[in-house]
Specification:
single chain; five-stranded mixed sheet; 192 residues; Nitrilase/N-carbamoyl-D-aminoacid amidohydrolase; three-stranded mixed sheet; 8 strands; 3 helices; alpha/beta
Length: 192
Amino acid sequence: MPLSDGIKIRCQQLNPTVGDFRANVDSIIAALRHAERDGIDLLVLPELVVSGYSPQDLLESPAFVAEYAKATEYIVGETSGTALLFGTISINTTGYGRPIYNSAVLAQNGSVVGERYKTLLPTYDVFDELRYFEPSPTNTPLAWNGVNLGITICEDIWNVENERVYHKYDRDPSRELKLAGAELIVNISASP
C-alpha cells in the first residue's frame, strides 16, 4: 500500500534477558499477537531481541548460534498478516569474514520477506560488535507492501556530525538507502 494510504506501524520496546530464548520468544510472540489484534501493519522490535543485547561471547558458541537460528525460524513461522521486523543474527555464507551478521529480519505470513545486516559496527565504550559480527557490504531498500523500506540497525543511523563523535565512518547507510530509493527508513536499536 502506498505511504499516502497510511501504514499502521508500532515500534515496541521489549525487555529481553540475554540468552533466555524461551522467555524472549514468548515475549516477541505476545507482542505480535497484540499487534495483530490491533490491526497493526508492521510491528518493529529491537536489535538482537531474540537473544537480548548484547550476547557478547555467547555468540562464539555453536550451540548458542544453533539455538538462535531455531528461535528465529519459530518466530518467522508464527507471523501472519501483521509484518514483523525484528533483530536477530544471520549466518555469513560468503566464506570469508566473521561467521555471523547482526541482522534485521522482516517476516510476514510465515515467511521471510527479507533481511538486512548491520553496516556500522561500534567498537567504543561498552560496544565491541566488530569482534563478533561481519559488517554488511551493502544495504538496499526492501520492497514491502508497495513501499521501498530502508532498514538500518542502531549505529547505522548514528553516522552524523554532532558535538560528541565516538567514531568516524566512511559510510552513511541512511544516505545510501535514500539515494537507492528508500521511501521510509526504519531503525531497530537496543543501545544499553
